[in-house]
Amino acid sequence: xxxxxxxxxxxxxxxxxxxxxxxxxxxxxxxxxxxxxxxxxxxxxxxxxxxxxxxxxxxxxxxxxxxxxxxxxxxxxxxxxxxxxxxxxxxxxxxxxxxxxxxxxxxxxxxxxxxxxxxxxxxxxxxxxxxxxxxxxxxxx
Length: 141
Prior knowledge:
Elements: H1 5-30, H2 46-55, H3 58-70, E1 76-83, E2 88-95, E3 106-112, H4 115-122, H5 126-133
Antiparallel strand pairs: 1-2, 1-3
Helix pairs in contact: 3-5
């Protein structure tokens, strides 16, 4: 009901979870591409320039993302974002299906840290999944 404020407030966690899941996964699938189609190759671009200036290399950035994402307790996401508050790239994590944009960040790359993202190929060795996902990142996206 339109006037059921308590009911609307009660729905917020579900909207956040399911809406965030949709948004996060929509971005995630666009951020992936097979190696044969250019996956993992970061071409010269303003993003590459920013990564090199701030982290020194893509390898150094991926190490930061992997470490922070592996430290998530339970399920969530690791993010490479642009943080307008600091005017620079930022690596953050979110729990469950929370979105980086809800923190005021502009998400550039999301790494799904939910068990469903890696278990079939990596079992419980999610560190291998985090290491290998960089091979299929669609940097053109």
